[in-house]
Each structure stands twice: as structure tokens, then as C-alpha cells.
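Protein 1 of 2
SEQ + STRUCT:
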Amino acid sequence: MYLTTKRIPSIRHLPYYERLTSLGMDTLKLRRLAADLADTHKIINHRTNNNSEHLFKLHPSNTRGHVYKVRKQHSSHDFRKHFFTLRVAEAWNKLPASVVSCRSTASFKTSMLPEIRQHYT
């Protein structure tokens, strides 16, 4: 997006984040997080074609958060901290119950985007 937004003459002089704001776009980091959370929603709700349900273990206690809270896995290896399941657990658990309990992926995405924009921008 950096080079793409630089090609627009009227905003070329603006810093990257201001160019994104003026175009109404999200950062790459935020778009990646949104895609990861959407994939997590599909996996937890068994909407994937592959056998990926084993990736997440739901937390047995839901006294805090929502009923779809995932157990955060820990790793002693530094290279593993960027794996999908480790990368997404904290953000997923921070989402409100009204968002994670959406029935369809489309409604989940619509509800999730304002939440992550509020907390991760």
C-alpha cells in the first residue's frame, strides 16, 4: 500500500498513515489481523473444508470474556511466536461476546472491524 498510495498526486506529500486515513483505508497490520480473526471464526464454528478444528482449544472457564475464549498456547521457542494460533489468541479473546457469537462470517466481519479499529489503531 505504501507505493500504491504514493502514486496519487494529491496526497503524495502526506505521511503514510495520513494517506491511508484520507483514502479511508486500514493499515496492512490491521487488515492482516482482521483476516486472522475471520479465519479463527471460521475454524471455531467449523466452517472450513480442512480438518483444522484441532488448532484451538477452548478455555474451560468462561467467567471472564465469552464462551469461545481460546486457550493461549505458550512456546519456549522464539520462532513460534508468529504462528497463527499464537498470533491471534489474545486479539480473539479481547473481542466482545456479541461479536464472536455472530452466526455468519459476514456479520462477524462487519461487527469485528469497528472493534479492532478501536483497539489496534
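Protein 2 of 2
SEQ + STRUCT:
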Amino acid sequence: MAYLHAIHFSLEEAQSMLAEVIPIVENIRNAKRRLDEIGYDIRGHHFFAGMGTNGTKPYPDEVSKLIKLFRGLTTKGILVKDMDRGLIDFPAIRPNGDEVYLCYMLGEKTIEYWHGIEDGFSGRQHVDSL
């Protein structure tokens, strides 16, 4: 069976990584908040009108920080889904062979939810149903 992701995690593997991953996700959320505060559009790669550094540099330091933080997660196979909420997904394979995401959001104690590749956050189901 062909899968979208090369790296997959068991629930236990993903849970064991949380202590390492949570501070990274917190740093991503904080860097994104700082970019919002200074008026930088991370998606458009520019400052909003009337904001910015007046041409002193092309982008804020937080952009480089975000790139480094993202790489720290993506090289492990972890996907950042929402910087503001601190939402990440760990690709996984269900016993029936379906590829799914184990879903974690900052503030949750453990990974308690999963969802299908196409379902997104609104389709989250408790891990008991994996």
C-alpha cells in the first residue's frame, strides 16, 4: 500500500516524544505571535501595510527561528498544522492499514485523538477507536 508519509509513529512512540516536542511547538507559537505583533504576514512573506523595518532587513529574525523550529519537527516526520493553537500531527497507520494522524494540541496532557488524512481537526476521534 502506498502512503503519503514515509515516517509513521505508533501511539506509544508519539507519546514518548511529547516531552521533547512540546517546547518546540511552544517556541513556534511564540515566534508566530511575535510576527503577528510586528505586522509580518508569514504566509505572504511581507509586512502588512504601515508595518515593518523600513527596509533595514527583508524579514524579521523570528522567520529564521521559525524555519529552524519547523525543520526540527519535520525532519522527525511531525507535521505542524496550526501555529496559533500549537497543533501538530504524527502520521500513523491504523491496524486496518489506513494512514491517519495522531493529533496533539498544546494544553492537552497526552495524545488523545486521531483523525483521517482528509478529516482534519474537526474529525478528531478518541484514540480508543484506533
